[in-house]
Amino acid sequence: MITFLDLHKINDRFRSEFEDALQKSLDTSHFVLGKNVLHFQNEFARYCGTKHCIGVANGLDALTLILKGYIQLGKLKKGDKIIVPANTFIATILSVLHAGLEPVFVEPNPETYNLSADTVTKYLSKDVKALIVVHLYGQLADVLGLKKLAEANNLLLIEDAAQAHGAKDNSNNKAGNIGDAAAFSFYPSKNLGCLGDGGAVTTSDSELYEVIKLLSNYGSNKKYVNDIVGFNSRLDDIQASFLSIKLNTLDEDNRRRREIAREYLRDIDNPKIMISNHSQDENHVFYAFVVEVEDREEFSQYLTKNNIGWLIHYPIPPHKQKALSEYSNLSLPFTEQIHKRILSLPISPVMTEVEVKTVVEVVNRY
Ligand SMILES: Cc1ncc(COP(=O)(O)O)c(C=O)c1O
Questions:
Q1: Which of 62, 72, 162, 259 has the lowest tally of Cβ within 10 angstroms?
Q2: Positive/negative CA dihedral, 126, 128, 130, 131
Q3: CA of 188 relative to ligand 1 center, distance in Å
């Protein structure tokens, strides 16, 4: 069986380092906002090229805290409209709602499945104040175009980089250092994943950094003194120690993911399997390798029968989820079509060459 993602194998590479880190944490017993969080925040900010990083509890909180932070700073206010891609994980949209803002669902660019300047332009209005760009599947969106558009229209540019740790553009700017602020998830399946939940905000805006640091820790900089109405959303100290260990191999892992993707792109040759525009440069870190097929049900059953794991990112578009029923009448035909046809093939840094070739062979035989 080729599992979709072998988390055991991924993390087993670091087992003895994790055990040492856990021992150290037990010895110091500084479990909340200890040295490991500070160390990881510095390392991850350096890695992304930003001035600051704030560890938080998960990726959804990272997004929500960025928006709440801007509200606290007076740069956004309740009811402002925020552009989001219609084809994303629901967290992107939930963050907007949790912050009391209004999502504007935008169809993605049909070539990249990401937002681009031309797809966004027609949705701009005086009420739109920010733009959340998702680097879906690990591929950077049209960052140059979107940055220009954001600057020209005085919009905040927020990156949802939950799937794009380490992706970089042609000028070597990494995901997390492209917009005004970025949100990361360290959910176990991510390219940089911890052994539980975790997330971070990166930014070079020192004002935003200070306010998110406060918001994420009960609005408090000094124990039992609360300056603003905050939350409890902190990156766990033990998780931070694991993340620092795994950060050392992130680039190598991403390189291997790209290598596998190149092989899929070169060798999958089946008219029934369509592959959208996947960049082969470092601006794609292949969190997912997504193909499209007319009869997904049949194809997924075929893969299962042939012992190949698969997943769908994602089976139901956010605006068609029961939780977001007030948006269900929006006309988003391309988004709806994507969600019916996409399927993700296994891709991970621990896949063997034989496994990659088996996936290609089985897909070509379909
Ligand atoms: C695009 C995107 N945004 C946000 C999130 C939310 O992250 P988390 O699950 O850590 O809250 C995820 C991952 O789950 C994601 O893939």
A1: 259
A2: negative
A3: 11
